[in-house]
Amino acid sequence: MDHRPGRRPPPFARLRPPALRPPSFSGRLHEPRTATAVGRWLGAALAVCFLTGLVSHFLQHPPSWAAGLLPSRPVWGYRLTQGLHVAAGLAAMVLLFAKLWAVYPRLFLWPPVRSVRHALERLSVALLVAAAVFQVLTGLLNIAEWYPWPFAFVPVHYTVAWVVAGSVLLHLAVKAPVIRAHWSRRSAGTLALPGEERDVPDRRALLLGVGTAVGAVTVTTVGQAFTPLAPLDLLAPRHPGYGPQGLPVNRTAAAARVTPAAVRGWRLEVRGPAPYRLALAELAALPQRRVRLPIACVEGWSADAEWGGVRIRDLMDRAGAPPGAGLRVVSLEAEGAYRIMEMGREYAEDPLTLLALRLNGEVLSADHGYPARIIAPNRPGVLQTKWVARLEVR
Ligand SMILES: Nc1nc2c(c(=O)[nH]1)N[C@H]1C(S)=C(S)[C@@H](COP(=O)(O)O)O[C@H]1N2
Ligand SMILES: [Mo]
């Protein structure tokens, strides 16, 4: 050892900041082939989310040209599209993490921008990442019914979906050469490295791991809408069979402040050319129908039930509704986004659409909409109005 004073290392030498140098990444898991392989699955999941989200938006807010033309069959249509929407969104969370992990070394690119074109490209990627992360996170918190933000979920989730769609298309256009070169494991594009014609084992292991994670998330949640897998539904916030009368509840009577006092002496009011009022016993004395229809919640859970009640069509005929009339339904609930619901003729005329008084053989419980609620085929759950007070023929 050298103890001569002059040769001593300066005190705290080890604490000197390291030279500012971007980290270097080795291994093949951050190569474009990995990003492409994960990216195309992510792209497919986001495309399913976008298209099924458009369907949901369209059914909830039909443009005027579609009035009266929405499909009321198949009765499970919305159950399918919305079940897919939430399942694809959950899968996209896993895929997005994997994709971001595959490309994060690019955050340390040096110099950070090389040209105006390069700066624009990086900005578009930043927008894509921000918007996609925002969508999967707000979607996840929405299915858990947790809204820790000051904005309304529905319009913002809808608007940002267009930002994701646009920035994905831009990203695909910009990256087209890289994607083409790395699309299949045999692609021998100009950007493929020699020896990259076949997938290397560590990449195969990574892709297998990501696939397993997606599969695990899907299998443990998709049962919330897809009944055959209901026994495996361990992680979804709601389970099709749990709830009063064997059906989940999103908004309880207490939350909607529909009290027993508010319901006492209830009479259904029907407005139209020949308005009338009916007490519950009078409604129950009209011809009753039984239908088997799902509640398909926008939050992804869905369950079939047997509903009993009076056909909406019969109630409208009794009010002298002209052919092709639509209906406005008003709930007892004092406030809430789903207090007033518009029903087009396609649902109002459908023989399966009921003012339901019974659920699974019993009188409706308070949480399922006692004294009366709407049940219609192929409509989002939010439009299956509970605690109905008034029907207005339009
Ligand atoms: N008046 C009123 N009806 C409503 C709601 C509401 O908040 N208010 N929630 C809707 C939602 S989001 C769904 S999914 C279904 C759920 O019906 P259920 O609680 O009987 O399962 O009711 C719908 N009917
Ligand atoms: Mo819902």
Q: Can you walk me through this structure?
A:
The protein is of the alpha+beta class and 394 residues long. Helices cover 39% and strands 13% of the residues. It folds into two domains: 32-185 and 199-225, no CATH class; 245-393, Sulfite Oxidase, Chain A, domain 2. It contains ten helices and ten strands. The strands form two sheets. Strands 2-1-10-5-6 form a five-stranded mixed beta sheet. Strands 3, 4, 7, 8 and 9 form a five-stranded antiparallel beta sheet that branches. β7 (354-359) and β8 (362-363) form a beta hairpin. The chain is elongated and about 100 Å long. It binds the ligand Nc1nc2c(c(=O)[nH]1)N[C@H]1C(S)=C(S)[C@@H](COP(=O)(O)O)O[C@H]1N2 and molybdenum atom. Residues 250, 297-299, 381-382 line the site of molybdenum atom.
Number of helices: 10
Distance between the termini: 98 Å
Number of domains: 2
The distinct bound ligands, ions and cofactors come out as: ligand MTE, molybdenum atom
SSE pattern, N- to C-terminal: HHHHHHHEEHEEHEEHEEEE
- Classify the beta-strand content into a percent band: 5-15%
Please give the largest β-sheet. Answer: 5 strands, mixed
What is the secondary structure topology, with strand pairs?
Elements: H1 32-60, H2 77-103, H3 116-143, H4 153-174, H5 176-182, H6 201-219, H7 260-263, E1 267-271, E2 276-279, H8 280-285, E3 289-296, E4 302-311, H9 312-318, E5 327-331, E6 340-343, H10 345-348, E7 354-359, E8 362-363, E9 373-375, E10 388-393
Parallel strand pairs: 1-10
Antiparallel strand pairs: 1-2, 3-4, 4-7, 5-6, 5-10, 7-8, 7-9
Helix pairs in contact: 1-2, 1-4, 1-5, 2-3, 2-6, 3-4
The structure holds the ligand Nc1nc2c(c(=O)[nH]1)N[C@H]1C(S)=C(S)[C@@H](COP(=O)(O)O)O[C@H]1N2 and molybdenum atom.
